[in-house]
Specification:
The structure is a homodimer of 568-residue chains. With 568 residues, chain A is an alpha/beta fold. The first copy, chain A, is built from 17 helices and 30 strands. The longest helix of chain A is centred in the last third of the chain and has 17 residues. At the A-B interface, helix 1, strand 3, helix 7, helix 8 and helix 9 of A face helix 1, strand 3, helix 7, helix 8 and helix 9 of B.
């Protein structure tokens, strides 16, 4: 502290001075020339005449605070925090508020601890909100159940902010005991929200219960109502859910102070090709959002939403998390400083790529299921099949009814009508359940695809045109220790190994992306017209998103929140 | 909580519903019709169709969040928290962030505990920042010295936010050990600031040290520079320092989110006649400030500055601290609800006027000095007198030089040149010091005035035209147990008793004001042309405000921070 103050006063040289730059001041929404003195990981002072051991000429470019992703599941990048960090930083993200919800569903507290340990000391600040709803519901078998007490045990970690997206809206608003125990345990701390379509009195009750933010709005009216009720609103532009442009009309100069950006879920290709918060700012600016306001949303507003006083602005005593862009309109990240250290040079990660030493034995080998042949046969019955109808680009599925294609007394896939067989297989070593059903909309003409990413319980999912391909794909996923696979008959066509909890690769993001590309090519070869059939497959099992889903326990009618027969 | 949620959902009746109102939504800066459901001390929900046991028709008036005074010394109202609360509430203030700095200088930790106990359970929320700089300097003798450890002991009180205005700017920016110990002890909590005229690199160092807010700006440029550096700025309109109108030009729609209002010090007459935050909003609006922005500054912005999530807006789960005004332009407070209970009816306090039972023995009888005749004689020397020059409406004094009026070898007052004798007498039972000097600018033509309010150490101060009147006034203050007195010769003309720490009356504010009016009339009779000569007298001893001051230890040259001779 004494050193920081001496530099700020100008009585001691800074470690580094950035000069020839235009500072975007998010407190006042001004842009003006300045020099920034940095010592250790802090901004010491802003002004002129600061002496330093090292000086960087920023060529007249714009200096912004490091960008903050207000809500992301790192697991969705299919990579470890270390690999994710390199790409996030290259896009100007210096802080993420992450919810290790996926790995918690597989590994419980061990999974959360792994994410904390695996992000320790990274140049990216990984701040954690604790998964509030594991499992999503009792209608599927997850790897762990997290009660309030387990969460409280983790709450003292210096990088834990509070409770992550509180998805149990009925529990919260009806004061159900388990939900209330969690909300009460974190009263006065951060409680992030998740309230898709929750409006009117339900919204009032939800906000009264404690959540302070929400990222699930899909219409401008929903944004406005949530802002009015006191929620911070995060505009989401993920891979699956892309809401940003539709929501922008809700913003006014007056209400934007309580709006920020979040990714929620972004896949490797989107992270690499588009970016993260920088992409959202760029998109917004192109659509008419004031650039300085976009910067405020990407920085100060997110920091304020979580009560973070040490970042979100370029100011004395705050972290020297800094982003340099050529111009505010293009919003192309050129340099990034994380805690005072330059980690991105000309848009590419150039920082220290070592990461923490982490014991991974608790999060590897999580596919606790034999690679034995599974009997996927479904005896044909009278009546129509209840079929999960997948719509492009939507997580919400439809409840469809179709006559079965019967063969030797069995209901089988019918690729002419795009009726594929689907199975969800419990993989946590608990029940060995196999849920069977049919899905329409993935468009495979032959073969099968399978994976160990199956929201939220992350059981194994396989979808195929025939049982042999399904068994081949499934066995390959199990033998790989988790991942995605495409198969045809007895042959595996491609695979993406995800050995960490069956959710994350241990390879760099570029490798993950290349493996994913091979998988997508294989799926195309199998006839799927979708760009990525693996994503809708991974959400087939999410029994809290309407309307019809398949878990290891069977077909779930989400609105009735109960298991239903395959036959109507 | 279950009850709150049931009311919010509309499943249980509220205690009270307010209807026929226009809600000022400070999150979105919108004004629209709404109904507000209240249960216990909380707002449960906002909408329509809420059932309730009681319903209040607000006659189409405007409903605002309760106003927040971001920084005030309650002692300056010369009354106890309970008496102050009645008047504050009548003016729409439902929360004050108070710094018990004055009583702490007299009674130390006991004084702070008294303020906490005396404000317990009041309808006014009294939140406390702990005095950070007691005493102001070693150049005067205060009743107590507060080190970091004593402050930390108080920090866990539920109504203590953090550290109050950190006045020791040199200590903070130069990383002096005592200052750093306090700043470090409260790192991550609220640290309020006090940095008059601190700009440039000093300001950068000050902000880097931890303070998050400042209320000492006197020019728009100072406001802008402080906002840019990341400080919240409180526009002050006190009794002594009235900065609001001069500072308003600094505000923009973009930077106003980090600006709030504060009183700092407001005297009884101003509180009663003008008001508090309502007065500042009214003044601002009359000068062109957008009314809704004024409401944001008076509520949400102040709450955000201190990280208060339970107030500052009318929203579910927040305190039902609510203010009703007839119109936003006039900003006349008609009704006030504090924690859901109506406490102001037609602009007058109508709430529960009982207060907490408080043991006062630790804060009474604090004038530890005999009422013995004091020898005020000053031997005449060669050369000129160093005289404290008081300017109307300013706390900053000038260093003047005047030839003494010598009588029988003594330097005496000379009312023709407005040279009055002044004395500051240690009253904490420590040294018995008597500091002597001369002051110009108070304008008494005869007699003397005296008081036990003498910033910041609150020793006794007496100013007069002759030694007999001075001794009469002084003796009366001591016999009264503290207060203000005017005297002529052997006669006391008027007095205002301040038995609590020599700073506060135990009477209602209206009584205090009537007694003060008598005092002012007496001062007028003694020839002073000033509206209130007691206020500049009370600041004669504040040795941290430039340029020349008088403490019990003698004359202080503030810029050199040392004692100087009476003679040049």
């Amino acid at each position: 502290m004494a050193k920081l103050l001496a530099v700020a006063r100008g009585d001691a040289p800074a470690d580094l001075v950035l000069f020839n730059l235009k500072l975007v001041n998010v407190f006042t929404a001004e842009v003006y020339p300045a020099e920034v003195a940095i010592v250790d990981q802090w901004v010491a002072g802003i002004g002129s005449g600061y002496q330093a051991e090292s000086r960087h000429d920023l060529g007249g470019r714009y200096l912004l605070p490091g960008l903050i992703d207000a809500h992301i599941h790192i697991e969705s990048s299919l990579s470890t925090p270390k690999a994710f960090a390199r790409v996030a930083l290259a896009h100007g993200t210096t802080t993420v508020i992450t919810d290790p919800h996926e790995i918690a569903n597989v590994c419980g507290v061990d999974g959360i601890r792994y994410m904390l340990e695996a992000s320790e000391g990274l140049p990216l600040s990984v701040l954690v909100n604790l998964p509030s709803c594991v499992p999503a519901s009792p209608l599927s078998t997850s790897g762990a159940v997290l009660e309030a007490a387990a969460l409280v045990d983790l709450a003292d970690h210096p990088r834990v902010l509070g409770l992550a997206e509180f998805m149990d809206v009925p529990g919260a608003t009806s004061a159900e005991a388990g939900a209330l125990a969690k909300l009460s345990a974190f009263r006065g701390r951060v409680i992030d929200g998740h309230a898709p379509g929750v409006l009117g009195k339900q919204l009032q009750a939800y906000v009264a219960g404690g959540p302070r933010a929400d990222h699930e709005s899909v219409t401008p009216a929903e944004v406005v109502e949530k802002l009015r009720a006191g929620l911070y609103v995060f505009l989401r532009q993920g891979t699956a859910a892309r809401n940003l442009l539709e929501l922008l009309p809700a913003l006014t100069p007056e209400n934007a102070r309580r709006v920020a950006f979040c990714s929620d879920d972004r896949h490797p290709a989107d992270l690499l090709d588009q970016g993260q918060v920088d992409y959202m700012a760029r998109l917004g600016i192109r659509a008419g959002l004031d650039p300085v306001r976009a910067v405020q949303m990407a920085t100060l507003n997110a920091a304020e939403a979580f009560g973070l006083l040490d970042r979100g602005a370029v100011a004395p005593g705050r972290r020297a998390d800094l982003v340099v862009v050529d111009d505010l309109e293009g919003f192309k990240v050129r340099y990034v400083y994380a805690g005072g250290v330059k980690v991105v040079e000309d848009g590419a990660f150039s920082g220290d790529s070592s990461g923490p030493e982490v014991a991974e034995y608790r999060v590897r080998n999580t596919i606790r299921r034999e690679a034995a042949v599974v009997d996927f046969s479904i005896p044909a019955e009278e009546g129509l099949l209840r079929v999960i109808g997948v719509r492009p680009g939507q997580l919400v599925t439809q409840i469809e009814s179709h006559a079965p294609r019967a063969l030797k007394g069995l209901a089988v896939a019918d690729t002419e009508r795009d009726l594929l067989k689907a199975a969800v297989l419990e993989r946590h070593g608990k029940t060995g359940n196999v849920g069977l059903g049919f899905v329409r909309g993935l468009g495979l003409l032959r073969g099968a695809i399978a994976g160990s990413v199956g929201h939220d319980s992350h059981n194994l999912i396989v979808v195929g045109a025939d049982d042999i391909s399904m068994n081949t794909a499934l066995a390959a996923v199990i033998e790989t220790g988790g991942g995605f696979v495409a198969a045809l008959g007895g042959h595996m066509l491609a695979r993406l190994p995800l050995p960490i909890a069956g959710l994350m690769s241990d390879q760099p993001l570029s490798t993950v992306r290349a493996q994913m590309d091979e998988l997508l090519a294989a799926a195309l070869e199998l006839g799927s017209p979708l760009h990525d059939p693996f994503m809708p497959m991974a959400f087939l099992s999410l029994e809290v998103i309407p309307f019809l889903k398949l878990t290891d326990r069977g077909l779930v009618d989400v609105e009735r929140m109960q298991l239903v027969s395959l036959w109507t």
